[in-house]
Amino acid sequence: MDKRRKPNSTERRRDLCDAAIQLLADDGAKGVSHLKVDRKAGVPDGTTSFYFRTRSALLLAAAERLAELDLARLQSVADDSAGSGVGDSPSRLSQVVIQSGREPELTRTRARYELTMQAARDPQLAAALAHSTDAFTKLHREILVQLLPRGAELEPAVVEDLSNVTLTFINGLLLRFAHGDRIIDSAAQLDGILAAIARGMLRSPEKGRLTGVDPARPAGRNKVKKRG
Amino acid sequence: MDKRRKPNSTERRRDLCDAAIQLLADDGAKGVSHLKVDRKAGVPDGTTSFYFRTRSALLLAAAERLAELDLARLQSVADDSAGSGVGDSPSRLSQVVIQSGREPELTRTRARYELTMQAARDPQLAAALAHSTDAFTKLHREILVQLLPRGAELEPAVVEDLSNVTLTFINGLLLRFAHGDRIIDSAAQLDGILAAIARGMLRSPEKGRLTGVDPARPAGRNKVKKRG
């Protein structure tokens, strides 16, 4: 009963990529070598080199595997939202983000940042990651609209600005999660913050692009109350 | 006249650190080795090894140099603000952030992210970076208060939440800058966004902690207008 079927080529590649993702998360990009992936995956020395000739090919395959996992997760969220899930509280967007700060997703969040840093110098890697980034951006925009005050008719340019700002906030949040800094702990809290940002940006006095607003008041004199 | 004074030990260390920072920005952490720093700084092979025995010591020295440069920049901003600069428009906070997306600061922004990723696995490195991060957080909070609607009496807890949210947004922004993604291009735009976030969070109906608010409305039905 203990005799295990030998994994086929596709399964073997996937296992090696999962081992590489774990190494990226634990030890960073410098922690990934063919031999370390062999050891992590528990396969004979030389296996990873056989499947992925170069380090570059190995990192690319890891990025593609990560994108595949991300897309599967986002797709399941999108499918749920298409059914009775629209308008869920907390939103599925916030649930996805908060999950990204907890295991098992946190490993992928960490690996994604390592690969993103590498991708700044590797266009192929950047392209592999872009697919899931685009899917997340799309989900983000769809769900964001549901968090806005009801009945508002929204200019596309305003939604684009708001989407850019909240997405940048989420980028920062995921980066803090990757470093173990859990400044927000629940999807409901995150919904609250996203809705507050939306309120503030929609209330902007100007009609034009929100990011073009210049509301800095000269010589504001606010005081923070003393505690106690 | 062309005869150059031989740099002393302190200057030599500083030059090597600056070369390491440039390598971190250009090629990432894996691009930093003792020999590469020698070549980058134009010094004889072995010089960097003489000053910094281990790779870890070299990265730590680079992080300390980066923190020194950051603190000098933030200090000059704080000094200006203490004079006639308070309430400047655009704010000095936003000026600092926008500068971080342009050379020569962009090199440091990139290097800082590389070191931050390394610091997740190196407490000494994390401590070296924490000093300038704390200084930036302090500046951020001071200037943020000036961007808020005038005359408001602000609960410390509210300012803390707001500061956390806007700082997370700025983290995300700097990360996008580091990857060459300039979604915001002027300090005035950034002031506008920070002020909008502040407005939204201050308008929150609850009296309690803003990040604890749960305003997600079930089944919001907003539509984005069609373009055209």
From TrEMBL, chains A, B:
<dbReference type="GO" id="GO:0003677">
    <property type="term" value="F:DNA binding"/>
</dbReference>
<protein>
    <submittedName>
        <fullName>TetR family transcriptional regulator C-terminal domain-containing protein</fullName>
    </submittedName>
</protein>
<keyword id="KW-0238">DNA-binding</keyword>
<feature type="DNA-binding region" description="H-T-H motif">
    <location>
        <begin position="33"/>
        <end position="52"/>
    </location>
</feature>
<dbReference type="InterPro" id="IPR036271">
    <property type="entry name" value="Tet_transcr_reg_TetR-rel_C_sf"/>
</dbReference>
<feature type="region of interest" description="Disordered">
    <location>
        <begin position="207"/>
        <end position="228"/>
    </location>
</feature>
<dbReference type="InterPro" id="IPR009057">
    <property type="entry name" value="Homeodomain-like_sf"/>
</dbReference>
<dbReference type="Pfam" id="PF17940">
    <property type="entry name" value="TetR_C_31"/>
</dbReference>
<feature type="domain" description="HTH tetR-type">
    <location>
        <begin position="10"/>
        <end position="70"/>
    </location>
</feature>
<dbReference type="InterPro" id="IPR001647">
    <property type="entry name" value="HTH_TetR"/>
</dbReference>
<dbReference type="InterPro" id="IPR041583">
    <property type="entry name" value="TetR_C_31"/>
</dbReference>
